[in-house]
Amino acid sequence: MLLTLDVRDPRPLHEKVAAVIRRAIAEGAYAPGSPLPPARDLAVALDVNTNTVLRALRRLREEGLLEFRRGRRVRVVGRAGDRAELLVAATELVTWAKTHGYDIDEVIDIIRSLY
Fold this sequence. Notes:
Elements: H1 13-26, H2 39-46, H3 50-62, E1 66-67, E2 75-76, H4 82-99, H5 104-114
């Protein structure tokens, strides 16, 4: 699968990298149990620093999508869904709100009014 970053996306680079990998998992390019390419290869494919990819991979591990084991490649253990999708949507909402002049309290009030 061809991985590309959206240069217009205002999020930090490691979050954009995590989003690309998350999307690849969600679309079935990497099924649960399958290994991801090495971080160096992902960095070359995305034209970013290896440390940026490693930071993105750690974030995906925290979300429960990836598993790290010493001496083995990083493996997919979950599907990009539920919490991961909510986190992406919330991040996009907060980014949009900041660029349009809303503060966090206003965003929270809007969300509470929808609940």
